Automatic annotation (TrEMBL):
Residues 18-178 form the N-acetyltransferase domain. It comes from Chryseobacterium paridis. This is GNAT family N-acetyltransferase. Gene3D superfamilies: 3.40.630.30. InterPro entries: Acyl_CoA_acyltransferase (IPR016181), GNAT_dom (IPR000182), N-acetyltransferase (IPR051531). SUPFAM superfamilies: Acyl-CoA N-acyltransferases (Nat) (SSF55729). Pfam families: Acetyltransf_3 (PF13302).
Amino acid sequence: MITKETEHKNYIFQSDRLGFRDWLPSDIEIMSEINADPKVMEFFPAIQSKQETLEFIERMQNQLKAKGFCYFAVDKLDTKEFIGFIGLSEQNFESDFTPCIDIGWRIRVEDWNNGYATEGAKRCLEYAFHDLKIKKINSIAPLINVRSEAVMKKIGMHKIKNFLHPRLHDTPRLQECVLYEIHQNQNQN
């Protein structure tokens, strides 16, 4: 649960321009706005409500406590401004490659095209492989989400296959997804 006592920004790790941390009460409103932006949520079945955002943040906090990782809240270090999330999360939908650890990102539109997703994802891979000793990371996106697939390639991931996502069967335009993968011993670009 998000409490006021956690309302300070202690970074778990940093990249050149970004700080990665646990979630704070002050993130709820901004993350709700990000999740309600049709442009950000273009490749999801629907925008998310404030309640859904709050439930997501609580899941991430619980996962961080239990596993040492989550989709981290991310700030720009120069301004301390919260811009969205980049990080790792467990995926357990029904598939031949799950359960797996997924790397993902969701950043507010005004911070797109600055290389934050790529920089942040590279740093999260480093944290996963070197600090947490995770052996393999996957990334999943709808086939039509070419921007996310470009980030997957930039961070050194390799395409494994296309698949039909079981949780997207009611959204045909999104159901065909790509699966990318990177292993601990692979060189990152």
